[in-house]
Structure formats: C-alpha cells, structure tokens
Amino acid sequence: MANDMDRMKELVAVLSKASEAYYAKDEEIMSNFEYDKLYDELVMLEEKLGVTLSNSPTVKVGYAAVDELPKERHESPMLSLDKTKDREALRAWLGGHEGLLSWKLDGLTVVLTYSGGELIKAVTRGNGEIGEVITPNAKVFVNIPTRIAFKGELILRGEAVISYPDFEEINRKITNDVDKYKNPRNLCSGSVRQLNNEITAKRNVRFIAFNLVRAINESGSEMAFDNSAEGRFSFLEKQGFEVVERKRVTEDNILSEIEYFAEKIKSYEIPSDGLVLTYEDVAYGVSLGRTAKFPRHSIAFKWADETAETTLREIEWSASRTGLINPVAVFDPVELEGTTVSRASVHNVSIVRDLKLGIGDRITVYKANMIIPQIAENLTCSGNIKIPMVCPVCGGKTEIRALNEAQSLYCLNEECPAKQIKAFSQFVSREALNVDGLSEATLEKLIDFGFIKSFPDLFELDRYKEDIVKLEGFGQKSYDNLMSSLEKASHTTLPRVIFGLGIGGIGSANAKLICKAYDYDLDKIIAASAEELAGIDGIGDVMASAVVKFFGNEKNMQMLKSLISKLDIEKPEINTDGQNLTGLIFVVTGSLNHFENRNALKELIESKGGKVTGSVTGKTTCLINNDNTSNSTKNKTAKELGVDILTEEEFISKYLN
C-alpha cells in the first residue's frame, strides 16, 4: 500500500511536470506514448487505492468565486497549546510516558471533513470557535486528496502552508515593494481565504495534516487505531495525506530529537515556529482534560532564539518605487543559527526611534523563527540616528508619514529614479504590458540617457534609434527585438493597463475586478467615486481612495491620455442580449445530464448575466442539484436558509425558457 501510494505521488509529479513543459513552455520532455503509459498507470493506482490527489492530471479543476466566505461554528473549540522554551521542561512534561514530537507549522489551520470518500467541507480555525468555510479553495490545494479510500466520516486538522521557495517566487513577480508579502504565513492566510479559488490555485498552497479528530466507519463505529497517535498518522498517510514529520520520543531520547529538528529547520522549506509534543497514548492524553485555556494532551515548544551581541555601524536607507524609504541596519558580522549575518531590516522610522538606535551602539540580534535577522535589543541606546531629510537616491526632500499606526519615511520627488525604474519595471512586467526583453538594467540605461521619462515614451523610442543601437550591450538586433516587443505590447487590455499604472495597492487581480465592474470603460473608472469603487467585491476603502487619487492628479491624466493614444486596447465583447439572469446567484453541485459539465452550465449562466458561486448563502437564488434529496452539505445549508433546490430540468424550465 505504502509503495503504491509513493508511486502514485511520483506519477502525479512527473506527469504534471511534463504537462507544464508541453503546454506552458512548448517543450516536450517525454513522448506521447510514454506520457499515456504513465497516465494509465496513475489511473490504475487511483482506482486501486481509492485515492485521488487534487493536483493529479486526471482531475479537471473547476474554479468558482463567492461573494463572501460563510461562517461556521466548530463542534468543539479549537484551543491553543500551552508553551515552553525550556528543553528540560519538555522532557519533564512526558512524565515517563512515550510521546510524538513533530513540527509546529506556521500557516493557517484548516479542518477537513470527508464523507463517503469525498471531501465535503473545509473550515479555517478562525477565532477557535467560529471559522470560515473555504471548501472550494481547499479543493485546489496542491496536495489534498479530493477522494480517499475510507468511505466513512473522517474529520482531521492540518496546516495550510506555503513554502519559502514558493513565497520568494511569488514576491519576486511583484514589482511594487509595498505590495510584497511580509512572510509566508501572511501570504498563505490571504491565499486560503480568497473569494476566488482560481487565485488560491496559483499560490501552491499545501495541506499538512497534524491531527485526526474523528473517524467513523461505515457501520457507525468510531475507530480507535489501537489508542495510538502514531496509528492515526499512519492511517492518514494511507489515505494519501501529507502528514507532519514526527519522531517517537521518551525521556531518554527527546533532547537528541529536539536537536535533530533544530538542525533541520535551518534548511527546512516549510515555515515552522517550533515543535509540538503529544502523548502517544491517546486515551491517557484525553483523560488529563484541559485547563480554561489549554488542552493537556499536548504542549508546544518554541525555539529559544539564539542571540548575538554586535556593534551597529550604519543605517542604510533603501528607496522603493512608491517612494517608501526603508531603514536597514548594518552591523559587525555575527554567527546565528549556523550562518553569518550582518544586516537586518528595521522596517520603519517608528522602530528606529523605539529602539533608540545610534551608530556605535551595542545591539543584540536574532533570527525570527530561526530565519529572518532582527534586532532584539539596543544595549546602549544612544539614539543618534538622524532621519534623512533628503532621499538617498535623488537628493529630493523626504517626509515622515503615519502608515498603519507606524511612521515611515517617503521621498517626495516624483522624478526620483528609484520610483521611475521600479514604476517602469511594473509597467512592462508580464501581468501588465508584457514587454519582453526590458530588464531593469535596460530601463535604467534608457532613463539615464533621457530616452524615457514617462510610460508613453516607451512607444516613441524609435526617435532614438541611432543612439540606442550604440548603447553597450545593444545593437541592431537587440533594437529590432525591442521594437517588435513594444509593437506586440501595444495591443493590450484595459486590466493590464490599469495594473501597469502602478496605482498603490492595485494588483492585477484587483485591476480585473475594477474593469469588469465598469464594463471595461476607462472613462467610467476615471469618473468613479471612492465609495462606488469600495463597493466592488475585493476592493476596499484604501484601494478605492488610491484609484481616485491617481486619476484626480492632472499630471497623471495627461500622461494617461498620451499613453492611450499609442495603445490598441481590446475590449471584451459583452453580450447584453438575453441578460435575464442579471443579479441572480446560483450554486451548481452534483452530476449533470443536459450539460457537459458544471463549467458549461456556469458559462451559460454568466453569459446571461448571472453569477455562479461555490457555497450556498442567504444571497443564493437557487441550488441546482439533480439529487435534491441527498444529505450533502449544500443541500442541508439550502434547506436551512430556505434556498430553492432545483433539478436541471426545473432550472431550465424556470430560468432559461
């Protein structure tokens, strides 16, 4: 069984890589014959094991958007664990019993429910009592089994996480420094709680199980797994779940196993902020009960941060595209967690002042979660750091502004090269105008020589042909390639343009939402008020204000007018005929008879002005389900809320005829 499971996961990875190479990169890394052979083997194993992973090439993923995430109360409160940083205290906690020591993962806790072998519900931890239903999103996590061999009821908990490499890759594609995610946990939380699971699917969210809550077999009996915590983990692994790494420990070996994890975290790709120790004897752990705040069957171990004392030598001020100037501490190199560090972000002016930093101060530094260098304490507090009155890049005036209750430094010069290079970099990026071959280094040359001062100038570079072909690293061929890329980029869409403008907080997904809300009419967007914009699902007050402020700037409008005159903006065809479903919201579930699949029905509904979401709420017009007597979660919710449940025939008769 274990070998078959490993082989199935291996086939999923190999076939997914081959598909990506073929369809996304136009590369063929295996023959069709070989692909088909491996695909057939995968199908055979999925049938044999009764398990299908969400990222299997045999699964066709459907995407759905919702207006809001429904709330649901947990059957029992999800309590936090008591904590210690003392290794000896952890050993003493065992009290002579055997335990399991595992990672304490740093993501977002999710509860999964399976029934009849199918994933029927996923709910976030929320505040511990009430969570948010994210079932459509969980179904596009890269490793969750959407089908398992166990046909009873299974409830388990785990951590939704995004690895450090995936986090860095996602941040690398974001050209606006302010929009970059601060850490994998924040990115994961936002990805898991998306209203559109197509966005979730692009974030490589993984689910790692850490607790089996309950398993009731088809005869109605609760399974005990020989009263073993390890037995529960083994069962989950056999169902295809990725399970947290753990070690069996006693008082004799726990210290050495803690050291194993302490060494491994230095290169571990999954965010972790400590360890969890739980009793191997499940019944014993349950018998201990709980305090008002914590269960007694488990305890968390937090890493005691390794600190080092050093001398602060400098504060560097790093300017970004938005004008934000971030302070970076430079200190004498020290060894921390096995690596040499000499720099740490100080984040903002408020922290510089709170720490009373000064050149020559003795400071202690550490790695947050054993990864990110931070200043822990200032031992001498001279406070002699002067906040720069001019930008380190352009020499223009600076200003301190309050941002989210913290004071930050900004450059006021709109012509600052730091702003321009980063702004142009976003404008030509793949999700914006998509100008191939324009790196930041090339943009820097074009700006330095005065060839481009604003976005429209990019489409008039032919005026400087003789000068450009003489630039170092350029030539006639490079010039011709650049002109070809710009010509191709000039045929674009409005969402790409809106994103490319670099309006604060407006990412590519937000740009699409705004354009769709205003029928891809730029004049309507420009005329929109902040209140109207904030009313769009996914656009809050801050983003709405940023849009209004941008279009309210006369200089921006002059630039935009010139830019639009040089672009061929394709407008999607909006069919206004037969829009009889406008304002209506539908949910589709179960198998269909009259339509090829759910997506086909979804497309028809949307073509008639309706909306299809993934969960039943009080706003749902009707649930389309050919089996309206089933005990599925959607049926139960619809009945509780008084939402109509219609078969395909009833839906067609009522809404399409």
Can you walk through the features of this model?
There is one protein chain. The chain has 657 residues and is an alpha+beta fold. The protein has 6 domains: 1-49, Orthogonal Bundle (Helix Hairpins), CATH 1.10.287; 67-302, D-amino Acid Aminotransferase, Chain A, domain 1 (2-Layer Sandwich); 307-411, Nucleic acid-binding proteins (OB fold (Dihydrolipoamide Acetyltransferase, E2P)); 417-489, DNA polymerase, domain 1; 494-570, DNA polymerase, domain 1, CATH 1.10.150.20; 585-656, BRCT domain (Rossmann fold, 3-Layer(aba) Sandwich), CATH 3.40.50.10190. It is built from 24 helices and 26 strands. Strands 14, 15, 16, 17, 18, 19 and 20 form a 7-stranded antiparallel β-sheet that branches. A hairpin with a 2-residue loop joins strand 19 (398-403) and strand 20. It starts with a helix and ends with a helix.
- CATH superfamily descriptor of the largest domain: DNA ligase/mRNA capping enzyme
CATH architecture of the largest domain: 2-Layer Sandwich
Helical residue percent? 25-40%
The radius of gyration computed from the alpha-carbon positions, rounded to a whole number of angstroms, is 28 Å
Quickly give the structural class: alpha+beta
Structure annotation, total helices? 24
Short description:
The chain is of the alpha+beta class. Helix content is 34%, strand content 23%.
Secondary-structure blueprint of this entry?
Layout: H1 2-24, H2 32-49, E1 52-53, E2 71-73, E3 83-84, H3 87-94, E4 99-105, E5 108-115, E6 118-124, E7 130-132, H4 135-138, E8 145-147, E9 153-161, H5 164-172, H6 184-192, H7 197-201, E10 206-216, H8 229-238, E11 246-249, H9 254-264, E12 272-279, H10 282-287, E13 298-302, E14 307-319, E15 324-336, E16 339-345, H11 349-354, E17 362-368, E18 372-378, E19 398-403, E20 406-411, H12 417-427, H13 440-448, H14 465-468, H15 476-489, E21 491-493, H16 494-500, H17 508-517, H18 522-527, H19 530-534, H20 541-551, H21 554-565, E22 568-570, E23 585-588, H22 598-607, E24 611-613, E25 622-624, H23 633-641, E26 644-646, H24 648-656
Parallel strand pairs: 3-13, 21-22, 23-24, 23-25, 25-26
Antiparallel strand pairs: 1-8, 2-7, 4-11, 4-12, 5-6, 5-9, 9-10, 12-13, 14-15, 14-17, 15-16, 15-20, 17-18, 19-20
Helix pairs in contact: 1-2, 12-13, 16-17
